[in-house]
Design a protein that fits this description.
By secondary structure, the protein is of the alpha/beta class. 35% of the residues lie in helices and 16% in strands. It has a five-stranded mixed sheet, sandwiched between helices.
Length: 147
Amino acid sequence: MKLGYARVSTYEQNLDLQLDALKKEGCKHLFSDKVSGVKAKKPNFDKLLSYAREGDTIVVWKLDRLGRSTVQLIELAESLQLRGVHLKSLSESIDTTSAMGKMFFQPRGDRSCAFWQSMNVTSFGSEPKRDSLQPGHEEELGVDQKV
């Protein structure tokens, strides 16, 4: 079953865009919070995690709705994977029911964290700076090395 989650940071913001996309995706149950991503407590997100069962897919509009750091997101993905719950992000086209989606969240230890830090990715929603690519990481991104 597809379970949708939407979050905005303030009560003044509107959830409609996210909720419409989740409904269009075919989510049977929708959970939402109006709380800052910095806050550790997201009451309806906690309810969603309790509700989700093996074989379910949690669908979000964008990955940054789930956590504010790469580490948080990887920990969540690992936790869901252990429970047999899948994750799908509509904006980033990531779906852990597919081989490519599973590969995206495969833990790679300290090397992976160092790589993301070298790309200046401190939170999802931040784009890496092209000039921040460290020598030696070109192959990891599929970038041809300059001759």
